[in-house]
Amino acid sequence: MIGRLIRGGFDRTSWIFLTVLFGVTLGVAILNLGPEPGSTMHLSTFVVSVLGKYLTYALLAISVDLVWGYCGVLSLGHGAFFALGGYAMGMHLMREIGPRGVYGNPILPDFMVFLDWQELPWFWLGFDMFWFAALMVIVVPGVLAFIFGWFAFRSRVTGVYLSIITQALTYALMLAFFRNDMGFGGNNGLTDFKDILGFSLQSDATRVGLLIASAVALAIGFMISKAVTASKLGKVLIAVRDAEHRTRFLGYRAENYKLMIWTLSACIAGVAGALYVPQVGIINPSEFAPANSIEIVIWVAIGGRGTLAGAALGAVLVNFGKTIFTGLFPEFWLFMLGGMFVLVTLFLPKGIIGFFVNLKEKWRASRPPQSMPQEGD
Amino acid sequence: MDSKTAILYLENVNVSFDGFQALNDLSLSIRPGEMRAIIGPNGAGKTTMMDVITGKTRPDSGRVLFNDVHNLARMDETDIATLGIGRKFQKPTEFENHTVNDNILLALSAGRGVWQTLFAETSARENERIDEVLHIIRLDAVRHNASANLSHGQKQWLEIGMLLAQDPKLLLVDEPVAGMTDSETSETARLLREIAEHHSVVVVEHDMDFVRDLDVEVTVLHEGAAIAEGSLDYVSKSERVIEVYLGR
Ligand SMILES: Nc1ncnc2c1ncn2[C@@H]1O[C@H](COP(=O)(O)OP(=O)(O)OP(=O)(O)O)[C@@H](O)[C@H]1O
Ligand SMILES: [Mg+2]
């Protein structure tokens, strides 16, 4: 059953996507680990980490595309699920520091010692175990999304109102996480990580390992999303997106469909956040900033809403641009981003991917028709 | 009128929008297997009546019974659809980004739950049924086109096809022939008569030739109440009806 579901989502785009993804990832990995540092062939570890970060953003963008592109739920709060996954991983990495912290406390992270706390708060228990933290990476965002979605979708909050409360959600979490007494390190967040699963986070090999883990997570997230959207459920989602009330009169519980995809999406965002944190070395409340969540939506719009691969592409391209431009002229980046968003909305309503699909269709139409037109979507 | 023998039974239903009385003590009873035509001038409350039956609008007062036991006034759209009441909207609202084929597939009676659709596999039986429906509504040739690209008349038929696929016990059909050519209109009348052989149907329409073609009992609605009932010839002779139609 599951196998058929996965196969159903496997098309030509999937092949291209996975080939490019693993081609680039393995290429970068080999060029980092293979040639001696200093040789012209060598790629710096900086590139490895930056690519790894982009891939987690790509996974985050796919999660937003699932709810926005396929179900019409414009989330302006997905940064919250990403950050929660990141915090869950960060808590594990803090516990893994053990007695190597500045204060040398084997149990308490430095910031708790600094605040004069005597024992670990209950919600930190279990995070010393990787499997538990890994589970929480999915469960915490998932449960929050489920509860939020349960109320929002059942009371039929839609459109701009829903977008606004998702902003409120991430904003409220940001304020909460800024507080020292919440027990998540206040505005400094969690940082100074030493290693993950026993491997030093400073070593090139670990960095490459994290890059590959990010690529694998992105591939899995992509395949799950492909499978779900290609199934009959995916067709119902699109129906809900385009004419919600009509699906109700056909006997579908639109709110259940929204809740399911919303929760799945939050879990995927959580995984992305968990892989992001060890690669950037820090998680702090600014990850909850409302503007972050808006930026994700812009990546998706630029890459191509409702195409999955386009969302991932948009995330990588925009963030590549961001890395370049914030280095050259930092003041202009936000204007650039805004400008791109406006241009894409006006001239490429289906994003970059949509542009290429159009080109291909035009090219096809300009050729004399072959035997039978290909059927499919 | 007796609620026991009716598949659909409305009793003293009132609906008001900001003080405007859209349905005014409306009572109506449809027998199982019956096809009923509802006519009435613009704004008479015909669509509002369908909204009440399908759970889109809650009545302020009155009873709406399906098969004498289900109180539709207390149920939501999905539950009512699940009971077996299907609806075609006045303005076609098919799923524009889906193909004609997928529109029918989504309407086809099958599990409506999230997990059921996630693992659903279109069976040979379902594909046969889709073929049948597409044949009946004459859209086989365009089955793989996005439904957004259909002509207005084709969209109307697609909606009727979706109703067929859904196979409800009671069909509510709001203005099925608006925007159709004469031949399409008479074709639609034939199609509805055929459907009515095995279903209960309520049709709202302004086109009198079409209503005559249906050859069924007619209810005239005016200002939210039923003012006449009977054959088309009978109600057209009613002074009240003449006054309502001419006095506009
Ligand atoms: N949601 C609403 N809010 C306010 N007024 C409404 C609403 N729905 C309907 N009305 C009003 O109720 C009255 C009845 O409308 P309804 O759509 O039921 O008429 P109708 O008989 O279907 O007319 P038509 O033949 O034009 O389709 C109209 O005056 C309409 O403006
Ligand atoms: Mg109407």
Shape of chain B: globular
Low-confidence segments of chain A, ≥5 residues, pLDDT <50? 372-377
What's the CATH class label of the largest domain in chain B?
Alpha Beta
Tell me what portion of residues of chain A adopts beta-strand conformation: under 5%
Portion in helices of chain A = 55-70%
Mean pLDDT of chain A: 93
Number of helices of chain B: 10
Radius of gyration of chain B: 18 Å
In helices, the fraction of residues of chain B equals 25-40%
Number of domains of chain B: 2
Largest interface (CB within 8 Å) is between: A-B, 28 and 33 residues
Helices and strands in order, then pairings?
The complex is a heterodimer of chains A (377) and B (248).
Chain A: H1 2-8, H2 12-33, H3 45-71, H4 78-97, H5 110-114, H6 130-154, H7 159-178, E1 190-191, E2 195-196, E3 199-200, H8 204-230, H9 232-249, H10 254-280, E4 282-283, H11 290-303, H12 309-328, H13 333-347, H14 351-366
Antiparallel strand pairs in A: 1-4, 2-3
Helix pairs in contact in A: 1-8, 2-3, 2-8, 3-8, 3-10, 3-11, 3-12, 4-6, 4-7, 4-10, 6-10, 8-9, 8-10, 9-10, 11-12, 11-14, 12-14
Chain B: E1 8-17, E2 20-30, E3 35-39, H1 46-53, E4 61-66, E5 70-71, H2 77-83, E6 85-88, H3 100-107, H4 114-118, H5 124-136, H6 152-166, E7 170-174, H7 182-196, E8 200-204, H8 208-214, E9 217-222, E10 225-230, H9 232-237, H10 239-246
Parallel strand pairs in B: 3-8, 3-9, 6-7, 7-8
Antiparallel strand pairs in B: 1-2, 1-4, 4-5, 9-10
Helix pairs in contact in B: 3-6, 5-6, 7-8
Bound molecules: adenosine-5'-triphosphate (ATP) and magnesium ion.
Magnesium ion is lined by residues 46-47, 90, 174 of chain B.
Note down, in words, how this protein is organized:
Chain A is mainly α and 377 residues long. Chain A has helices spanning 2-8, 12-33, 45-71, 78-97, 110-114, 130-154, 159-178, 204-230, 232-249, 254-280, 290-303, 309-328, 333-347, 351-366; strands at residues 190-191, 195-196, 199-200, 282-283. In chain A, the strands form two sheets. A two-stranded antiparallel ribbon of chain A has the order 1-4. A two-stranded antiparallel ribbon of chain A has the order 2-3. Chain A is globular. The two termini of chain A are 22 Å apart. In chain B, helix 3 (100-107) runs parallel beside helix 6, helix 5 crosses helix 6 (152-166) and helix 7 runs parallel beside helix 8 (208-214). Chain B is built from ten helices and ten strands. Chain B folds into two domains: 1-84 and 169-248, P-loop containing nucleotide triphosphate hydrolases (Rossmann fold), CATH 3.40.50.300; 93-167, no CATH class. Chain B is of the alpha/beta class and 248 residues long. Chains A and B meet through helix 9 and helix 10 of A and helix 2, helix 3 and helix 4 of B. The site of adenosine-5'-triphosphate has 11 residues of chain B, from helix 1.
